[in-house]
Amino acid sequence: MPHTLGSALRSVLALTCAGPALLAAPFAHAQQVAAPFADVPRGGETAVSLAEISVAATGVPTPVTQTGSSVTVLTSDRLEVQQVRTVPDALQQVPGLNVVRTGGAGGQTSVFIRGTNSNHVKVQIDGIDVNDPSTPNRAFDFSQLLTEDLSRIEVLRGPQSGLYGADAIGGVISFVTKRGEGPARATAFVEGGSYGTANQGGRISGSEGIFDYSVSVQHLRQAALPVTPFELLPVGVPLRTAFTDIRSVSTKLGAQLSDTVRLNYVLRFSDSAYLDQADGGFPYRPLPYRNLNDQQQLLMRGEAEWTPVPGFHNVFGANYASFDRLFAGPLDPLASPTPTSTLGERTRLDYRGDVQMAPGNLLLFGAQREDERIETTGLNRQNGNTGGFAELQSAITDRAFLVANIRHDANDQFGGATTFRVAPSYILPGTETRLKGSVGTGFKPPTLSQLYQDYPGFRFFGNPNLRPEESFGFDGGVEQPLGERVLVGATYFETDFRNLIQTAYFPTFSTNVNVGRAVAYGAESFVSVRLTDSFSARVDYTNTVTKDEVANQELLRRPRHKVSLTGIWTPLPNLTLTGTLISLGSFVDGNRDFSITRLKNPGFTLVNLSANYVWSETTTLFARVDNLFDQRYQNPTGFLGAGLAVYGGVRLTSF
Fold this sequence. Notes:
- The protein is mainly β.
- It has a single domain (5-653), classed as Beta Barrel (Maltoporin, Chain A).
- Helix content is 5%, strand content 56%.
- It is built from five helices and 34 strands.
- It has helices spanning 5-18, 76-82, 87-91, 161-164, 448-452, and strands at residues 53-54, 62-63, 70-75, 97-101, 109-113, 121-125, 128-129, 150-157, 171-177, 185-193, 197-208, 211-225, 242-256, 261-279, 286-309, 312-328, 340-358, 361-376, 379-395, 400-411, 415-427, 434-444, 460-461, 469-481, 486-505, 510-532, 535-548, 561-572, 575-584, 587-589, 599-601, 604-614, 619-626, 645-653.
- The strands form five sheets. The chain has a 22-stranded antiparallel barrel.
- Strand 26 and strand 27 (535-548) form a beta hairpin.
- It is found in: Cell outer membrane.
């Protein structure tokens, strides 16, 4: 469906200009009768849960009922009770997402949101942009991200560059780590199970006087997961199972110097090694050896918060992110491997302010300067970007809400880009029906690799004249409470993409050019129930249709149908049971080395169960079963997913 930016902007301006005339109404919280996502039951508790608050949607804590954006929030309580140890496993249950992982934990992991490319997702950890400048397409690899130190995960769907700038063409995934509070507390857990899995972690946190602190460590090892399908093995070549070793440490410190000044500091380091069956060339012929993929990530952020007067909050921040990747293989004991190392770095200085202009009217504004660099064999380049944004968050009445933002980015390489997003929400009186929607744009600048990296041996050369990829998207939906324990909803979405970067082949060379066009549209629907104070459940269905408008073909690795079902039950005060079902319909993919560019993957269904028993105030026993029915599946094609697996362990706390 064609759209013009001019007509879209006229509609946005009309809506934005009409809003201020109605901004005298006081700010109010709309009542939510059922949690939008199945969460840990809390008895008869009626207060708004953390799963009903979003920070990613607007930049400040906001009830999800007061923004039209489509957002899913996963809290640490939910992840712990489900015993979800890795971020890819957590994201599988989110509607609108397809998580693609080359094997088990540690295998390269990509996330597709609403049919967009995997590199069209903006990823942040504690406000630090972690899209990897060391990779050819600046996509973030989710494989080494563990959950032990996470407080919440927010998945924001649809173009979001109006607030977040570059890379937010398809959506934003934001991770927030845990902050220390209260008396000093120590926790630790040990877990073991199938495929030689050993998992340990711990955390020390608390606050003392003006200081608060949280330090988390986690180590996940998986020693014997079969990843290569047997049909790909040549005669006489043994199967080599994948080996994963992921270690991470996370620190979050704070100091409340006065009523008006606070300092924050975040440090996160992770180191992962992944060994898989070595590739013997093209077409894919596995060798009896393995390849090594080693990654190290270092993230740091410092903040100073200043509130000179009530209602006026300022944050001054500085980020540093480093991504160091090494590939070596095949690890043949009779030959020395030739390692390939790539380093990517990003620094950012930023300012954000928010001021309460009137009751129910919040104005956010800010500016950023970001520089990124890539260093590898034959390439050492950098690029920078300066951006500024403004956002109005308004409670027009106690039932009508509006969030609107606009942003301009000036890139050192290609010039300027202006983006926007508008997300209204309205709750009908009487029926309490919530109407919501959003419209926005996104852009993704070409990566340093796409601009400058040459492969003369293959006659491939970078293209410094590339332009940014662009998107225009909208969605609209309705949510309807049915009594006090049932909530149903549905949202239609559509996103158009232009100037997509693709490889073009000429008689004597090849290079990247802006020729791609695509569209993705579909619907997300859900039913959320809280049958009793001890049992809640939610089922989501996502239908996604994608089309490459140049080749007139369906895009790869975008299942048309996805169903996710989650349930949490507390039959006894000390016992909590959970169940999760993930079902993907068939999708188009290529084989492992893409010598067959298009084939049909039949899809799969997974069922996971978990049990948590609070033995005492300091001891919790837990166990889980993943892939209960031992479903044999590949996502992506050519890489086996884990079969039936059983795990168990114990968690200890100091009080």
